[in-house]
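Revision sheet: structure tokens.
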Amino acid sequence: MTPVQNEAAQAVIIYLTVNQFADKHPAFTKGGLRALIFNEQSNGLAKSGAIVRLGRKVLIDERRFFAWVASQKAA
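Predicted:
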């Protein structure tokens, strides 16, 4: 894989529903994710841009969510 292809592969945005995210990452329960999303204004998740709303559907940007998790560890 060339550096350009590698960079393009890393730039792919993966959006997952709460259920899909919890199934893919069992460390995060559906209820726990919903609680984080409900309190996104106070916990900084909204500022991270990890939560995207399309009408009633809530999607999680996987890369930004884990960047937010890493920033919580530092704080």
